[in-house]
Amino acid sequence: MNQNSNPKETLTFKEKLKVEGKRLLLTIAVVLVICQIAFYKESFFNVAKFSLSFLYFSLLPGYALMMLLADQLKPELRIILSFPVGLAVYAIVGYYLNMIWPIKYLLVIPLAVILTCGLVYYYKNKKITAKENIP
Questions:
Q1: For a designed S-S bond to 110, which of 31, 94, 100, 130 qualifies (C-beta 3.0 to 4.6 A apart)?
Q2: Residues near 64 by Cβ (< 8 Å), separated by ≥ 6?
Q3: pTM to 2 decimal places
Q4: Which residue, 22, 77, 86, is CA-closest to 53?
């Protein structure tokens, strides 16, 4: 292995996914504990339902978008920024999708659009960088 190589660059996709999954699960656990403390009079299942739905609509789209900046931001900063970015992007995408057709009862459509666009961008960017790195 080259002495100048960065250990973050040598991780395979599966290893990166494992590390990011652990960070995401830790964040979910911390939010669940904080919400359970804040709503101590409620049952655990009600708090878990609220917390997981909040994370699904705020953390998940923001975290997916912040993964594009994984090389430039620290992991803690990415997690912190994923909440406001996720809520903002979800609101903007929901607003523009509602202009096309009413999404009165379909709350999942904006999240599906955000994640699909993020995956398409990731795979396009991955192919471009892979071609550029070939000598």
A1: 94
A2: 114, 115, 118
A3: 0.64
A4: 86
